[in-house]
């Protein structure tokens, strides 16, 4: 994340970006292309990831263990609109895992799911063989595991 800007200022800017994007959609019916940036910011903040020191193809974030992540975003506005799809995956990139950050209509992160490279590439090969295009959000979630909120968060709340 930006090193010359305080975390507080960046948090405030991201909050304002969420508010403006949601307001713009309500007013125009169109979306501003900010979901990807919000998803990368939230993935890094919520999961303790960092931006890579050197740019790597298809890599948006890295963890302390050296794992490399491609971050995808999907803002769900209307669940009844049919199959939502994730954006194009950089299959040639140097990533190990993909994170799907699911945002609501207010551009707030609702969930983050993680899938391994091999699993995603295999699923994409099947999709291409069927000529249906990109992976659906539902398919990605079925192939992945939830990483935020942590799977045991609900259990801790009710205890």
Looking at how many chains there are and whether they match, the oligomeric state comes to single chain
Radius of gyration: 16 Å
Order of helices and strands: HHEEEEHHEH
Give me the count of strands: 5
| Low-pLDDT residue intervals, each spanning 5 or more residues | none
Helicity, as a percent range: 25-40%
Any idea how many domains?
Answer: 1
Instruction: Tell me the span between the first and last alpha carbons.
Output: 35 Å
CATH architecture: 3-Layer(aba) Sandwich
Mean pLDDT: 89
**CATH topology group:** PvuII Endonuclease, Chain A
Rough shape? Answer: globular
Task: Explain briefly what this protein structure is.
The protein is of the alpha+beta class. The protein has five helices and five strands, in the order H-H-E-E-E-E-H-H-E-H.
How would you describe this protein?
The chain is an alpha+beta fold. It has a single domain (7-158), classed as 3-Layer(aba) Sandwich (PvuII Endonuclease, Chain A). 38% of the residues lie in helices and 18% in strands. It has 5 helices and 5 strands, in the order ααββββααβα. It has helices at residues 7-28, 35-47, 117-129, 137-143, 153-158; strands spanning 61-62, 68-75, 97-103, 109-116, 145-148. The chain has a 5-stranded mixed beta sheet with strand order 1-2-3-4-5, sandwiched between helices. A hairpin with a 5-residue loop joins strand 3 and strand 4 (109-116). The mean pLDDT is 89.
